[in-house]
Amino acid sequence: MDFGEQGARLTYGGYLQLERLLTSQRLESDPAAHDELLFITIHQVYELWFQQLLHEATAARDAMLDETPGADRLWWAQHLLQRMHVVERVLVQQVDVLETMTPQDFLQFRQTLAPASGFQSVQFRELEFLSGAKDPSFVERFRGLTEVERERLRRRLAEPTLWDAFLRVLARRGLPVGSDAEVTDSVRRAAHDRGGYAEVWALAEALLQHDELAAAWRARHVVMVERMIGTKTGTGGSSGADYLRSRLELRYYPLLWELRSHL
Ligand code: HEM
Ligand SMILES: N[C@@H](CC(=O)c1ccccc1NC=O)C(=O)O
After folding, report:
1. CB of 121 closer than 6 angstroms to any ligand 2 atom
2. ipTM of model over 0.95
């Protein structure tokens, strides 16, 4: 039986670049703190999922923007947004794994991390920008960004968001999008004529779900932070949990939330 022994061809480890992947966990603590491997692994897994989410969100946006006559790809945008929701639920649940670390075990290596912090996650900020929450001040406030990273953020600031693409979908369906009031009226019309505007309403709900899951992650993250460091200031130089609480109100699609009060 030579199953699995065909040699000299593509291998599992080669295909997945495991040599690079599994040697990319370098501890800062010396002597090594037991829990630092978990801390690095969790963050690397987050960044891999962020990369996947950016891949899906970019394609969903492009599918909504596609104006090629006869090439209606809204079903594809919808499919990708649903996948994003499932990944986003994983991101929220994954916090449980990190919470198996006690605060005193975290403190064994926490001081070696400063001034690094999740605040500097470029992909996290790209996701916020692409979703619709563009804030150029983040690009300026970022310390220690490489030129490539800075350029990636600038490009995300310049390109259309998921919300911009959704507005194009409304306009193509003959629904006015000239002002916030018009957009709200248009989505309300879709909400009350779901037979006539099935895809529009489904996309609005999928965007709202994406927004809700991002809010759930922020809420989960801040509670973990309180559990780990209480009211201490962050390694990134912010006030810590207070700063993170100020971010809880962020919504990507405020009009979709306001609509709820006027349906
Ligand atoms: C022990 C666990 C963690 C603690 C104590 C913690 C703490 C903090 C603190 C205090 C901040 C505010 C910035 C600062 O001054 O440092 C922050 C921001 C942030 N953290 Fe964490 N964090 C933890 C785990 C994670 C994980 C696993 C991720 C996943 C990638 C993450 C992603 C982020 C992001 C994206 C921000 C920026 C949020 C924003 O600006 O809205 N953090 N974290
Ligand atoms: N900001 C955290 C440290 C931390 O969690 C962290 C440090 C370096 C890289 C990523 C991190 N994760 C989230 O902020 C703290 O103040 O304890």
Report:
1. no
2. yes
